[in-house]
Write a structure and sequence with these properties.
Elements lengths: L1 E5 L14 H13 L5 E3 L2 E8 L2 E8 L6 H12 L6 E7 L7 E4 L8 H10 L5 E6 L10 H5 L5 H24 L1 H8 L6
Parallel strand pairs: 1-4, 1-5, 5-7
Antiparallel strand pairs: 2-3, 3-4, 6-7
Helix pairs in contact: 1-5, 2-3, 5-6
Amino acid sequence: MKLVVGLGNPGLQYAATRHNIGFMVIDRLAARLGAGAAKHMHHSLVQQAAVAGEKILLAKPQTYMNASGEAVAALLRWYRLPLFDLLVISDDMDLPVGRLRLRKTGGHGGHNGLRSIIELVGGRDFTRLRVGIGRPADCRHDPVDWVLGRFTPEEMELIAPALDAAAEAVETAVAEGIDAAMNRYNAREKV
C-alpha cells in the first residue's frame, strides 16, 4: 500500500490557489483512477484507489499547510506504513510554472508543509513530487501573497497539462518505481 498526500489548505478561500497544487493533483488522480468517495479520517480527506494492482490512499490534509505533518504522521501510524511508502505532492516556487521534479528524499527547501512532515514523521526519506508555481516577477512581492494567490489565465495554460503529467508521474512511481518516474518526468523541459 502507498500513501499519496497532496498538500494544500482546506476551505473554499484557498481552492485553486498556487499553494493548493497538491490538492489539485490528488483530485486529478482520484478522477483518473475512479477513487472511492472521500472519508474524513486522521485530519485528512482520504480516498482509496489502485494502480497496477497496488492499493493507494489519496490524502488531502485538513490541518492547514503549516501543520500537514500532524495528518501525515497520523495516517502513517494508522496504516502502519514506513516512510518509503509515502509520496508527498507540493508546490515549489523555485521551479518554473508547470515543471515537475521528483526526488526520493531531501529537505524541506523552505516549504512549511514539508518542514512539518519531516519534523513529525521523524525523517526525510520519503518521495516528493514538486510542482512548479514560479516566483513573482516583482521581487518586492510578498511570497505568502504569491502562494495564496490564484493562477493567472496564462499560468493555467501550463498548469492544466502539468496536473495530468503529475498524476501520470505518481502512477508511474507506484507501478514502475520511483527511478522510472524520475527518468521520465524530471527530464521534461515542459509538460
